[in-house]
Amino acid sequence: MNTPEITVVIPVYNEEDGLQVLFDRLYPALDQLGPSYEIIFVNDGSRDRSAAILREQYQRRPDVTRAILLAANAGQHMAIMAAFENARGQIIVTLDADLQNPPEEIGKLISKMREGYDYVGSIRRQRRDNLFRNWASKAMNRLRERTTRIRITDQGNMLRAYSRSVVNAINSCREVSTFIPALAYTFARNPTEVVVEHEERALGESKYSLYSLIRLNFDLMTAFSLVPLQWFSMLGIVVSMGSAALFVLLIVRRILLGPEAEGLFTLFALAFFLIGLALFGIGLLGEYVGRVYLQVRHRPRYLIEAVLEQQE
């Protein structure tokens, strides 16, 4: 197989209902661009017929289609890493399988890459998500930017283009848990962003629950910054100084006004607050220790069951 100019990477997890619609739009959109391309689908341990559908699509278009079948669910970003390590193109584009990012928008990113940028992110023009999800996403974006100094306007949008040099740098990392857009941003010398259209999910349901989104953002902040630990250390100093000041105040009050009979529930509330603060700090520290534990075990990040591709 000749080396293509463009590689499109699409992780797939339980998307059997929408895959045919994706095929019907993706291939014509790439054919119209002109340059040679390949599409790498990564089945991330789907429990439905997604793997079988990908096999059928590979048989229809073996010249431009490749499929990596993972033995178990490894998560979206690890699925993308599996594709990055097998991608041949000079420009690598990631795209979700749910069609919320139209495949027709890929051309915008390719044009921007040809202007000399090595990493092109995308910003959804008008998000088709509910109000709570939009608000939560903006809030987490601001918090993430303050803690990691990584400036990604729309971190939840996976329609992004990467140069070969950036992907090579990503492949050199052996992290067991990461956030690919942020990792790419740290390696890019000339990043930029473009505005793209956004559509409602064609078929199926979102694979990201509220818990998953919170977990993803927590992973992002702890993977790229020590600021949460530093913030907690500063908070501990402030609470300690406040506690010392309160102790002095109580001693002075006892000397001037005598012993205090009331205030028991206030002390309970203060004790519960400090206990909660301590538990939160232990959990935050445990998060960092847990990441170290996962890393030092050196277990494989994903297991490949099969690779469907046309041999030279």
From TrEMBL:
<keyword id="KW-0448">Lipopolysaccharide biosynthesis</keyword>
<feature type="transmembrane region" description="Helical">
    <location>
        <begin position="264"/>
        <end position="285"/>
    </location>
</feature>
<dbReference type="InterPro" id="IPR001173">
    <property type="entry name" value="Glyco_trans_2-like"/>
</dbReference>
<dbReference type="InterPro" id="IPR050256">
    <property type="entry name" value="Glycosyltransferase_2"/>
</dbReference>
<keyword id="KW-0472">Membrane</keyword>
<dbReference type="InterPro" id="IPR029044">
    <property type="entry name" value="Nucleotide-diphossugar_trans"/>
</dbReference>
<keyword id="KW-0812">Transmembrane</keyword>
<dbReference type="GO" id="GO:0005886">
    <property type="term" value="C:plasma membrane"/>
</dbReference>
<dbReference type="Pfam" id="PF00535">
    <property type="entry name" value="Glycos_transf_2"/>
</dbReference>
<feature type="transmembrane region" description="Helical">
    <location>
        <begin position="231"/>
        <end position="252"/>
    </location>
</feature>
<keyword id="KW-1003">Cell membrane</keyword>
<feature type="domain" description="Glycosyltransferase 2-like">
    <location>
        <begin position="7"/>
        <end position="167"/>
    </location>
</feature>
<keyword id="KW-1133">Transmembrane helix</keyword>
<protein>
    <submittedName>
        <fullName>Undecaprenyl phosphate-L-Ara4FN transferase</fullName>
    </submittedName>
</protein>
<dbReference type="GO" id="GO:0099621">
    <property type="term" value="F:undecaprenyl-phosphate 4-deoxy-4-formamido-L-arabinose transferase activity"/>
</dbReference>
<keyword id="KW-0808">Transferase</keyword>
<dbReference type="GO" id="GO:0009103">
    <property type="term" value="P:lipopolysaccharide biosynthetic process"/>
</dbReference>
<keyword id="KW-0328">Glycosyltransferase</keyword>
